[in-house]
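[RESIDUES AND BACKBONE]
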Amino acid sequence: MRPDRNFFRNYSDFRRILVYILFFLSVVLVVIPGLIAQLIQIAAIILLGWFILQILFEIFNRLTVLERPQQYDNFYSAWPDIKDCIMNAFKKGSPCTIWWLESSLEHASVMVDDVLKPILQNSPKNPLKIELVMLDPSWSEIEKINPSWISLAKSNYESLHVYLDVYNEEIRNHEWSIALSLYRFLPNFQGILVNSEHLFVSSCTWKNGKLTDDNFYELYHFNDNFGGKEKIDQFKSWFEHCRKENQNLTQPKPSNQGVTFYITSEDKKK
């Protein structure tokens, strides 16, 4: 739970006790004669009224303003916060895990250029585990969903292969693990989960007969008040299903013509 929520809860508990005390004083002091008792009673009534107003305004706000996840117009609007989230998780010093679920791996290339390369070049060794999930480019049904995803998936995967080749030694030295799984079914959403705590997620929608993934993103946290834990659990279930789906597929072989292939680790990459 965040510190500000702890403070608010503690203040609410303290205020509740204080309201009872003030109410008791305002009643008891009625039967006690004297100017001092009268002044204390007036002060108690004023404070009691102030706290009651606070409580009424809070009730009104709960009814009119619902807490909701932060929203972004698209992936590129969300990217600065995604990048900060990854970098902050990495800087904590403990192993950082990233689950990246996407259709054509288009946005993952942004992470490679803006995050992974700079970290490898400028940061000390720190374990990092990245799991990427994407549509199988050789799946014939992609043509019916979004034909452009075929070429995007192939070219972006080839770019990832080049990155892993060029930075092979640095990846080993930093004790990183980068894996990719493929799936063959209609994608309904995509997202990025960092350390099982922070989820940036977007839904896929149909536009002009094509399934698109350039839609608004939402940010959920494991301990938020608008279903973050449930959203993260849902994302994990789909991600793990994609892993199982991958085990039943025959992985495409590497090709210098841009055909995608599967990487489980640097030792198995050939």
